[in-house]
Amino acid sequence: MAVRSHLQTLLATGHRWGCTPAPCSSWTRCLSSINSSTQATSTSTGGQQPDGPQPLKWGLYAAAAAAGAVALSGSAFADARVKELQATAAASKPVAQAALQQPNSSDALPVFTAEEVAQHRTPKERVWVTYKDGVYDVTDFVAQHPGGAAKIMLAAGGSVEPFWGLYQQHMKQEVRDILEQYRVGTLEGGAAAAAPTEDPYRNEPRRHPALIVLSDKPFNGETPVEMLVASPVTPSDMFFVRHHLPVPVIDAEKFSVTVEGAGMRSLQLSVQQLQQHFKKAQVAATVQCTGNRRNQMKAAPAPGGSGAQIKGLDWDVGAISTAEWGGVLLRDVLLEAGLQPNDPSVQHIHFVGLDTDMTGTPYAASIPIDKALSDAGDVLLAWEMNGQPIPRDHGGPLRVIVPGTTGARSVKWVGRIVASADECQGHWQQKDYKAFSPGTDWESLDWSAAPAIQEMPVVSAICEPAEGASLSTYDGEVTVKGYAWSGGGRDIIRVDVSADGGKTWAPAALTKLPHSKPSRAWAWTLYEATLPLPGGFKGQLQLACKATDQSYNTQPEDVSSIWNIRGLVNNAWHKVNVSVE
Predict the structure, then answer these.
(1) What residues are annotated to the active site?
(2) Are strands 257-261 and 414-420 parallel, antiparallel or unpaired?
(3) Rounded Cα distance, 345 and 473, in Å
(4) Predicted TM-score (pTM) above 0.70
(5) What contacts 537, CB < 8 A, 6 or more positions away?
(6) Does residue 365 contact residue 429 with C-beta atoms inside 8 Å?
C-alpha cells in the first residue's frame, strides 16, 4: 500500500499547490486501481512484497502523477513534467491504461466545502464551479465557452445555476454531459450549500399563447406563420419576441435616456421631453432576428463533412415581424446634443439597454455613425408601436429601431446613447451575430475575423401552405403566400414561386405598404401566387420561392454556400414539401 500512501500524499500536496484531483477524476481512478492491483499482487506473492523495482505500481504511479500534473498552473516546469510523466505512463503495463479508463463514480470522488470551491477562481488556482451536488474543474473549457471566457468566469468559485437560470439554453442534457466530463468532486451539503438566488425571470410580462415558444427563460417566441401574411402590419401581441436577458421592470414616469459621448454635451431626456421638444416621426419597419430560418440551416450537414454543429435557437420562418413605429429621429437628438456630422472623433453610436445579467452587464450594440446621422436612415427612438405605447415585451417605454438592419442592433429599453470613436465592445457585438465561412468550425473560430452584421441580405419565405400540408388533385392549383424583405432599404422588385422544386418559376403578385419607396423600403413585401398542379399528379410536391431586390440581389439555391456555425443570415430559397392526393 506504499504507492497508494504516496499518491494520497501527492494529492494533498496538489491541493496546496492549487491543483485539482485531476480532470476526469484520474486521481480517483488511479488510486482505486492501485488499491485493487496492490491487493492482487499481494495475494499472488503470498502477502510478501517483492524486493526491488515494481513496474506495475510505478507505472500506475506515473500515470496518476501525469493526470495530476495537468492540474498544475501553466508554468514551463509543469508543462515539461507533464510530458515526462505522460511518456512514463505510456510505457507502463497495460493494466495502468485500464485503470485510467475506469468509469467515473461520484461516490468515490472527494468531498469539498463551498469555502474550498471558492478558493478556485483563477487559472492559476484552477477554475472550479458547482452544479447541484457536483464540483467541476472547468479551467480547460474556459477558452472554448461559446459565450466567451468572461461569461463563464463570472461563476468561478461558485455555482453555475444562477447563470444557467439566466441563460436557459444551458438547461439541456447535452450541456450537462459536457460539464460532467470535468467533474472532480462532490459538494458538501449538496445543492443546498449553494447560496440561494431569486428567479431573475419572476417579473416577466404575460404573452399571447399563440406565440410559438422556443425558450421560456429568456423568453423567445415566433409569430405563427398564418399571422405573418394576414396583414402587412403584425399585431403587437403577435410580434415575435427575441430576448437575451430578463425583461427589466421600469417605472415609465421616472424613466429617462442619457445621451452623451464624444463631441456632444450630455442630455437627460424623458419620453415626455422627447415628445414635446422634437418632431414626431413614423416609420413602418420590419424587424428580423439574425437567426431567422436557422432550423433549415441546422438540418443541412456541415460542408466538407467536418461534423461541426450549428448552435442557436431553432427559429423557423417566424422570427420576423413588421410594425408602424412612432418616435423621434435619432439624428435630431444627436444634432440637438451638439454632434457635428463630420466630427472625425465619432464613428459609432452605442445603444445600452436596461436589461442586464446578474452582474449588471447590459445588452448593448452599436451602429455606424453614417447610418445614425443619415437623412435617409430613419433611425428612431421609438415609444409607439402600432399606434399604442410600446409594450414591455417589445422595449417600452423607449427602444431603438434601426430600419434595414438586423434586429440585434434595435436595442430595447434603451437607457444610454453614446457617441464613440470605437464600435461597441459588448458580447453581442463582438462575440455573436457574425457569420463565417462554411469551413469555419468552433475550434478554428476567430470572432475578430468577421465584422458585426448590420444590413441583412434579401430573404423570402413561404407561409401558406404549411410544410406537410395535403392538397387535393381536384383543385388543380395551389395558392402560395409569403413574405420577402431585404436589408438596407432595398425594395423587393420580384418574388418567383415554383411548384416543382425550382425547375420552373412564375412571378407572384406583390403587396406593399402605401408609403414604401425604393431605397427606404424598410417594411417587407407580401406576395401571393396561384400555380397549376401537374395534371393527374399524386404524391409529394416541393414548393419553392426566391426574391430579388432593387439591386438585383437574389437568393442562393441552397444553404451549402452560406452555411455557418451560428446559423445566421439564412437566405437560401425557402422550400416547403406538400402532398397531392
Answers:
(1) 145, 170, 242, 289, 433
(2) parallel
(3) 66
(4) yes
(5) 473, 580
(6) yes
